[in-house]
Amino acid sequence: MAIARQALRTAVLLVNLGTPDAPTAAAVKPYLKQFLSDPRVVEIPKLIWWCILNLIILPIRSGASAKKYASIWLNGPDGGSPLLVYSKKQSQALEQKFLAQGKDVLVDLAMRYGNPSLESVLDRLQKAGMERLLVLPLYPQYSATTTASTFDEIFRIISKWRNQPELRLVKHYHDHPEYINALKEQVESYWQTNGRPDFAGGDKLLFSFHGVPKRTLDKGDPYHCECHKTGRLLREALGLTSEQAMVTFQSRFGKAEWLKPYTAPTVKSLGEKKTKRLDIFCPGFPADCLETLEEIAMEVRDDFLTAGGGEYHYISCLNTNPAWISGLAEIAADHLAGWPQLPESPEALALSIQRATELAAKK
Q1: Would you say 46 and 39 are in contact if contact means Cβ atoms under 8 Å apart?
Q2: Same domain, 267 and 131
Q3: 311 annotated as a binding-site residue
């Protein structure tokens, strides 16, 4: 007689960069300190950087950053930091997607810096009976400054556990067909509502990715190449040429050379050339955040208009686009292969249905 195999609890952990708890200097300072103290993020000798960070950057930048966060903070009972709000919705929608498919998969969200912290969420999953863990960072393009840092922290946390879970890591999905399709749908959906640029008449589309120091490329980080591949695949999916759709890099910080071309100077140059319409989209950010809503949708827009440009269109990130949720589910399913997720008892099935109902009510 066959022996029934016990189903082990499987969890998918989405991880994003992080956000302060409030748009205030008091909340921004510890968040920035944790973020900028990560040696994966800032590769400067520790003692030198400690002095620069604590004596110069944090006292000056915390207040300035707080004002920027305040300009994009979402109000209302379900408001807060856009990055956290949209990432939570992605997590809930992904779990609901699995439940609708009859898969008993826990889905949760953690932030690499700030809250909900990786440690607290992993502890919650462990208490929920997690035995198998798939880590899916919300960074489509791999970088040591983001993806590797996330993996480092997870390894550090579970190194203290007596009973560790089976572990799988999603390194990147910059060229996954479902991810590219979701990006394409997001852009085309915007054009259906706001009109398509006249590319034959000189209008432009920019794909702006977060920048990193050029030395990371020189040391072998594949981020630069993966951003360009995403840009090329998306451009081809939209039927555009390299002259019509360009890849740039934003958020440069400090005096060191970063990946080029830089977004802001490129946009200013297009404004000076009297470009009639410029659309800008940030494919590397699955959820809108400070870098997209304040830097791109506000600061860079002002640069373009002040320089003499015409219409400026910011295309929102994927956020809760159904095509993106389906893409996330497909990416996760590729890496969950071989781990059974079907409920094996009426009780487990009833629990799954109850959780699906609760998630639907929250949505």
Answers
A1: yes
A2: no
A3: no
Q: How far apart are CA 15 and CA 138, in angstroms?
A: 6
132: pLDDT strictly greater than 60: yes
User: Which residue type sits at 357?
Assistant: T
On whether residue 325 sits in a domain, the answer given is: no
Domain that holds residue 42: 9-174+331-362
pLDDT at residue 282 in the model:
98
For residues 123 and 198, membership in a common domain is answered with: no
In terms of domains, do 83 and 158 share one? yes
One domain, residues 161 and 215: no
Mean pLDDT of the chain: 93
What integer pLDDT is reported at residue 337 of this predicted model? Answer: 93
Say yes or no to pLDDT of 5 above 50. Answer: no
Query: Is 291 marked within a binding site?
Result: yes
Q: Give CA separation, 322 vs 28, 64, 196, 231, in Å.
A: 32, 35, 22, 21
pLDDT digits (tens, 9 = 90+) for 233-257: 999 999 999 999 999 999 998 888 9
Q: What percent of the chain has pLDDT over 90?
A: 87
* Dist CA 344 CA 248 (whole Å): 49
Residue 38's DSSP bridge partners are none
pLDDT per residue as tens digits for the range 199-236: 999 999 999 999 999 999 999 999 999 999 999 999 99
User: What's the CATH number where 277 sits?
Assistant: 3.40.50.1400
Q: Are residues 103 and 140 in the same domain?
A: yes
Instruction: Please state the domain count of the chain.
Output: 2
14 and 73 share a domain? Answer: yes
Gap between the Cα atoms of 335 and 137, Å rounded: 13
